[in-house]
Every structure is written in C-alpha cells, then in structure tokens.
Amino acid sequence: MGLLQGILDYESHQKALDDLVRHYRPQLSQIAREGATAIEQAVPDYVRPHDPRYAEVVQQAAEYAIGHWFDMVADPALESDEVIDFFRELGVGEAREGRSLESWQRSARAGTSAAIAYITRRDQQAPPEVPGELVGQITASVLAYIDRLAEAVAAGHAEANAREIGEYQGRRRRLLELLIAGPEPDLKEIRDLAAKAEWALPQAIAVVAVRERAGLTVRRPALPSEVLMGLHLDDPCLVVPDPEGPGRRRMLEHGLSEWTAVVGPTVPLTSAVRSLDWARRGLELTRRGHIPGDRLVLAVEHLPSLMILDRPDLLCQVAERRLERLLELRPRQRRVLAETLLACLESGFNATEVAQRLHMHAQTIRYRVRQLEGLLGEGIYDPAGRLELHMVLHGWLALHPESAEERTGPVRTG
After folding, report:
1. Contact at 8 Å (CB) between 265 and 299?
2. Are 345 and 390 in contact (CB under 8 A)?
3. Residues 6+ apart with CB under 8 A from 394
4. Is the separation of the CB atoms in 323 and 372 below 8 Å?
5. Which letter, b or e, does each residue of 34-56 get, where b requires 16 or more Cβ atoms within 10 Å of its Cβ?
6. CA-wise closest residue to 264 among 254, 255, 272, 256
7. 301: closest CA among 269, 251, 264, 348?
8. Distance, CA of 360 to CA of 373 (rounded, Å)
9. Angle, in degrees to the nearest 10, between helices 10-24 and 101-119
10. Which helix H or strand E contains 360, and what residues bound it?
11. CB 103 within 8 A of CB 40
12. How far apart are CA 282 and CA 287, in angstroms?
C-alpha cells in the first residue's frame, strides 16, 4: 500500500491531482531550490561556504523527496522502499556529522513549508484548479510523508549511534583485556588502543574484582566513563585510573553499592595483572565469608588475611601450634581473648588504647592480658614471633566467623 493511500481522495479528485502533477513536476528543481534555501536559512549547520558540494547534496535530497511525493500522487500504489532506504542512510550521515535529530527535524519543517507554499501559491502562470478540500488533503499527505521520512532518518541515526557506541565499547573492552592479559603487556599497543578508545593514559591504576550480590537485581555500575568495564568477562572486573585521587573511593562506593567489590592495590599501568590477582583473592574471601562483602573492600586493608587464607590448612597447623591452649577454651571465651590479643598486638599492648578500640574498661583488658600470659606464656611479647602471631590471629578469626552461641553465650574470664 502506498504511503498516500487513505490520505488523498483519488476517486473524487483524480483529474485535479493529475493536473497538479503535470503542472508542478517540471518545476521540481525550482521547488527543491526554494526548499534548500529555506533549510539553509533555518539551520546554519547545513551551510558550508567552503564546500559547495554540501549545498548540492542538500538540494539533491530535497529534490529526491519532493520528486517521490509527486510520483506517489501520480501513482497511489507506488512503493517507497528505495526513498526510505535513502533517508535512513541520510540519518547515518547526520549521526556521523555529529548533528542531533533536532537539526534534521528543523530542516524538514523548513523545506516542507517552502514546498507547500510553492504548490499552493496563486500568482503562478495558469496554476491548476485545486479544490479547497483537496488543499487540506495535499497538506496532510505532505506532512504524513515527511513523518515517514523522519522515522527513516531517526532509524539510521540510531543505528549509527549504536554502531559507534558498540565500536567505542568494544575498543575499551579490548583495552581492558590487554591491560590484564599478562605481567608484561606491550606499552605501545596499550597507547595505540587507548588513543582509539579515547582513554587518557593514567600514571597508576587499580583493578576491581566484582560479583553480583545473590538475591539482588543488580544494575550496571554507575561509574564515570574513564573506568574501563570488564563485565563481559567470566570473572568480571574494572580498571580504575588514578585510584587514589580525590573522591575516587567515594565514587566507587556509590557506583558499586549493589555489587560485591574488592579493589586491588594501586600499581603502574603495565602491572594491572598484579592488582587483579589481589582483588580476585579478596573477592574469593568475601565469597567464603572470611571478609565482609557488604561494602567496598580495599585489598590493602586485608593483606594479612589475603596472604595466609590461601592456605587454610597451613594456617590451621600454625594456629594449633601457637594458640593451642587458647583454642581449648569455650567458643565465646576463646574468641574474646583472640580478639583482645589481636588488638594488643596492633596497639603495642597499651591497655588504654585497646580498651578504646574494644569499647570496654582498661582494667578488663589488663585482666584478659594476664589470662593470655597464663595460656600462651611470655611468647606473646616476643618481637621475633609477633608477625606470625598477628597473621595467625587474623586468619583464624576470619576462618571462624562468630557463631550464634558466641554472640549470645556468657563470657567467662575466670
């Protein structure tokens, strides 16, 4: 079915329509010139004084559109596939030129108004008789036709934008893959691909390992464009440039609020694989429940756990040796004393500081320290073994999350 069928009353006005086509079809070039002039006046973007071919293209497009309308008036069954394809490609060109659809819509309105004004003008030599009701139908048919061309332009514009976005995202995905591909990625290749991906090379980066949270409908992370997204990978990750810059941590906390995310350490550009390794280790520990994953995790804040929890069997052996008598206590009591000893090691056995950290009285801390001395001996003060003891306590507490019994049971310290 032709585009104008159902709009023009061919049965009642066939002769008037035939006369209109015979009169105006030979004037097509003049009508197109007036339409092109109106377009250039309405949309300065289409004026290229240094490139006369551009004005020719505008007029050719106007002439093609108007000519096809005359052809449809003469043949109501005429198909419009070819002209629709032409204007779809015109939409592609508009997108490549960087113009919005608003520019084309303004040009279409200007050109259409000029064409209608020309056809309905009464000062021409021997114009055909056009009944008043047919004038309204002609106007409606032109507007419906232009709407259909506008749909084609919009489709081409959207297709071009989608292709451009797809190519842009594809280049950025390839850049991320190159950065994390191995310990020694080619810096020249990184620079070349970064230029194509419009990604400014940073001095340092961090890789963030991410995982969707179970039971949640997770949206795409809301992060700025300089963050490279690797959500297409089997083990998704992100590359964050200059991660220690102002506002970076807050940006990640906000953008990844619906994700479990672990930020690897800051490394040089060509060392992304090292940051990724630590980030993925941390993410695995959140999966096991050894590190809380309900908020953004910085790997550097959990280095002892990351270093020793890869080998839980080895950790348990060392814990049995260093903490043997402590581990024989009731669950709640051994956790309380283990947490106290860890805080003491991190505070230089300053009872006041430990009490502030654990929110209790300093005298209680001194009493617990005496208990620890009785269980583990003076070795808790030995500088040579302090690092091992510190790491073992970190690991043991992570491997043994607090149970319901420990949360509710009484604490016996004597």
Report:
1. yes
2. yes
3. 304, 305, 308, 342
4. no
5. bbbbbbbebbebbeeeeeeeebe
6. 272
7. 264
8. 20
9. 90
10. none
11. no
12. 9
CA angle 398, 400, 405 (to 5 degrees): 135
DSSP string, 313-334: HHHHHHHHHHSHHHHTS-HHHH
Distance CA 114, CA 35 (A): 5
Q: Which amino acid is at 13?
A: H
Nearest to 25 by CA among 73, 60, 61: 73
Q: Maximum CA pair distance of the chain?
A: 119
The residue written with tokens 């490139």 in the block is 51
Rounded to 10 degrees, what is the CA torsion of 170, 171, 173, 176?
A: 180
Closest CA to 78 of 89, 70, 87, 86: 70
Q: In the block, which residue shows the tokens 């108004």? A: 113
Q: How many whole angstroms separate alpha carbon 233 and alpha carbon 252? A: 19
Rounded-to-integer distance, Cα 299 and Cα 353, Å: 25
Q: What separation in angstroms does the CA of 155 have from each of 65, 88, 89, 162? A: 17, 6, 9, 10
d(CA 72, CA 64): 12
Q: Which helix (H) or strand (E) covers residue 202, if one does?
A: none
pLDDT given at position 355 = 94
User: Can you tell me which residue has the tokens 């709640």?
Assistant: 332
What's the one-letter identity of residue 35?
Answer: G
Task: Please state the pTM of the whole predicted model.
Answer: 0.55
Residue type, 197: A
CA angle 243, 244, 247 (to 5 degrees): 90
* Tokens representing residue 173 in the block: 């995905």
Q: What is the rounded CA–CA span in Å between residue 171 and residue 179?
A: 12
* 3-state secondary structure at position 88: helix
| Tokens, residue 3 | 């585009």
Q: Which residues of the chain have pLDDT under 70?
A: 1, 49-54, 121-127, 215-217, 403-414
Burial 196-223 (b: 16+ CB within 10 A, else e): ebebeebebbbbbbbbeeeeeeeeebeb
205 conformational bin, left if phi > 0, alpha if psi -120 to 50, beta if neither: beta
Residue keyed to tokens 């440039």: 241
